[in-house]
Amino acid sequence: MGKETVIPFGPQHPVLPEPIHLDLVLEDETVVEAIPSIGYIHRGLEKLVEKKDFQQYTYVAERICGICSFMHGMGYCMSVESIMGVQIPERAEFLRTIWAELSRLHSHMLWLGLLADALGFESLFMHSWRLREQILDIFEETTSGRVIFSVCDIGGVRKDIDSETLKKINSILDGFEQEVSEITKVFLNDSSVILRTQGLGVLSQQAAFDLGAVGPMARASGIDIDMRKSGYAAYGRLKMEPILETAGDCYARTSVRIKEVFQSLDLIRQCIALIPEGEIKVKVMGNPKGEYFTRLEQPRGEVLYYVKANGTKFLDRVRVRTPTFANIPALLETLKGCQLADVPVLILTIDPCISCTER
Amino acid sequence: MNFSKKSPWILHYDGSSCNGCDIEVLACLTPLYDVERFGVINTGNPKHADILLITGSINEQNKSVVKQLYEQMANPKVVVAVGICAATGGIFSECYNVLGGVDRIIPVDVYVPGCAARPEAIIDGVVKALGILEERQKFARKKA
């Protein structure tokens, strides 16, 4: 047995777009323990409810994270709407679902690119990000924002998508699907990618359950958990089955996310076929009073919104439990016993969003 | 056409941003905008970098990290603050853990506005930074 060495990893590290710090305790090249320290992006957003009223806080909620920005806004709006007993129009539900699934598409493409970058596969990184721009173009056309849209509002959505544009989205997605299936073949079949990911960082089903993993991390270990099945927004009217893998290694997690890309494409097409005509927003009067929990599925897993209101313009409490936070214990478990050179890939494999985690 | 005398290498650090500006910084480097064709490379090593791109505001935990990164960079160097959070703190300026813009800790040369800053704006900011970098190089040469 070798001597123990501690290697600091981060907060500024080439593989990390965001700062997180890990102390890696090594025996020779093998990691025996990883000790995280977070707080580099902590801003204190939950306390901001004291200074921004519940309407303004929608903008703050959207800025909890720039990648799944729309879904944060949606989760917050859904909570406040439930407290106030507001039933939003059906068309708004469908529009929210379309934007949410487009967000998932762009987030998964972004992650695939970052994974390729961590593997040292530069051209695959560039291709993933090139394809992602097509989704961002749809965002820009429908919401006029590329990353932060501000279209979700309490009582519905601010912008409508007309049927012409919906048709256009359909045809863009057809081309996108063709190109994506080409590059995902590389992720799933290329021997160098397989060698770097298969059998790495195995998380057993029991461990994933015990450590409370969520999202693709849990589904790759065979846990059937997908909040979209609970039927919020328009998901109740769409046909979908959670995507499961059993291996629980990096390859399985990649495979789950790749299949989810195609699942999202399918869901958006279903939405476009089913979307009803009508209003997109109802007027919201008065102030909320009461409390509510919302659970919804983000690209990284389940996010939990808790809102407590006291009948004034200012909320008492907003609590967000984000998917990356839930996945960090699972990450630390998978890091044990891996090689130092595999650490960047393993950290990326949970699709970390530190900005969500620390708020 | 004017050729820049130097291919600027960039060091990107995420202060406490929401990721919006960070993914736009990365989008600049990927095929649609592709600034690598002009010789701009995103490096992870502060000693290699000429331009420091900072997104997000300064807080208690990261102020020493930002200061250290700035001090590790070799002269001449330019700092670009990307996004409204890096300029003033933006929507988060009232948060208890946000001290304000990046200029609270290190001198900032170029401010790129926007929430999130668009890739075009970020590229424009880097081009402005290039001018400043060249002037500083001339000044350094004169001194030497």
Oligomer: heterodimer
Q: CATH superfamily of chain A, please? A: Cytochrome-c3 Hydrogenase, chain B
- The tally of beta strands of chain A, per DSSP, is 8
Task: Look at the structure and give the mean pLDDT of chain B.
Answer: 84
What is the total number of structural domains of chain A?
1
Order of helices and strands of chain A: EEEHHHHEEHHHHHEEEHHH
pLDDT averaged over residues of chain A: 87
Count up the helices of chain B.
4
For the record, what CATH class of chain A applies?
A: Mainly Alpha
Largest sheet of chain A: 3 strands, antiparallel
| End-to-end CA span of chain A | 41 Å
The parts of chain A where pLDDT drops under 50 for at least 5 residues are none
Spatial sequence of strands, sheet with the most strands of chain B: 2-1-3-5-7
| Name of the top-level CATH class of chain B | Alpha Beta
What best-fitting shape of chain B do the alpha-carbon axes yield?
A: globular
Gyration radius from CA atoms of chain B, angstroms: 15 Å
What is the CATH architecture assignment of chain B?
Answer: 3-Layer(aba) Sandwich
Give the strand tally of chain B.
7
Helical content of chain B stands at 25-40%
CATH topology of chain B: Rossmann fold
Second-tier CATH architecture of chain A = Orthogonal Bundle
Describe this structure in words.
The complex is a heterodimer of chains A (about 350) and B (about 140). Chain A is about 45% helix and about 15% strand. Chain A is of the alpha+beta class and about 350 residues long. Chain A has a single domain (about 40-359), classed as Cytochrome-c3 Hydrogenase, chain B, CATH 1.10.645.10. In chain A, the strands form three sheets. In chain A, strands 1-2-3 form a three-stranded antiparallel beta sheet, with no helix packed on it. A three-stranded antiparallel beta sheet of chain A has the order 6-7-8. The mean pLDDT of chain A is about 85. The model of chain B has no long low-confidence stretch (mean pLDDT about 85). Chain B is of the alpha/beta class. Chain B has helices at about 20-30, 65-70, 85, 120-144; strands at about 10-15, 40-45, 50-55, 60, 80, 100, 110. Classes of the chains: A alpha+beta (about 350), B alpha/beta (about 140). The interface between A and B is large, with 42 and 39 residues.
